[in-house]
Amino acid sequence: MKLLRNSLPIALTIALGGCSLGGLLGGGKTPPTLLTLTPQAALQGDFTRSASAGEAVTIAVPVIGKELRTVRVPAQVSHMEVSYIKNLQWVDTPDRLFQELLAETVRRTTGRVVLDPKQAALDPGVLVSGQLYKMGYDAAEQAVIVRFDGAISTAGGARVETRRFEAKVPTSDDAPNVGAALNQAANQVALEAATWIGR
């Protein structure tokens, strides 16, 4: 088993016991296919909508940590160590993919006018921002975990509200299963966040 790091401590190997780490990344080759996030929320008619001043929703790209600032999919192998899943890469960084998924989910489920931050000059309305803490595989949990701390602020920042969303989907660490589980978990978080945003 080759890892992205030069070595994996023996103590870590023993501590993980029966947990398979066969899916962790070993080389720098780009896989034949790339992973993206596909909205699972059902379409609700057409998207011809209007909003009065302050009623639109602007979804910002979430803040991410260094382990997510890459197109590779992270695997948390211990509380101190991160590796990457073999043969699995995003088409873009996960912060941008999640922002697009959340925006589309809000459009499909709430009936609200949703703007990209580049359109904020029109009327940003309610601003949704936040931090994407986790979006990868956890070896100890044997599951993918997506965790997003969302923040909603009204125009001018008169009111700010925050909430944490998390989804965990059990899976093995091979690329196809991790990819499908990540899409499922990200959609669960996006749907819960969209319900919160659109209420």
What does this structure look like?
This protein has 199 residues and is α/β, with parallel strands linked by helices. The chain is built from three helices and eight strands; from the N terminus they run αββββαββββα. Strands 1, 2, 3, 4, 5, 6, 7 and 8 form an eight-stranded mixed β-sheet that branches. β6 and β7 form a beta hairpin. α2 crosses α3. The longest helix has 24 residues.
Give the terminus-to-terminus CA distance: 49 Å
Poorly predicted ranges: 1-21
What share of the residues lie within helices?
10-25%
Structural class: alpha/beta
How many DSSP H or I helices?
Answer: 3
Q: What number is the mean pLDDT?
A: 82
Q: How many E strands?
A: 8
Taken in chain order, the helices and strands follow as HEEEEHEEEEH
Strand content: 25-35%
**Shape by Cα distribution:** globular
Q: Biggest β-sheet, characterized?
A: 8 strands, mixed
Radius of gyration, rounded? 18 Å
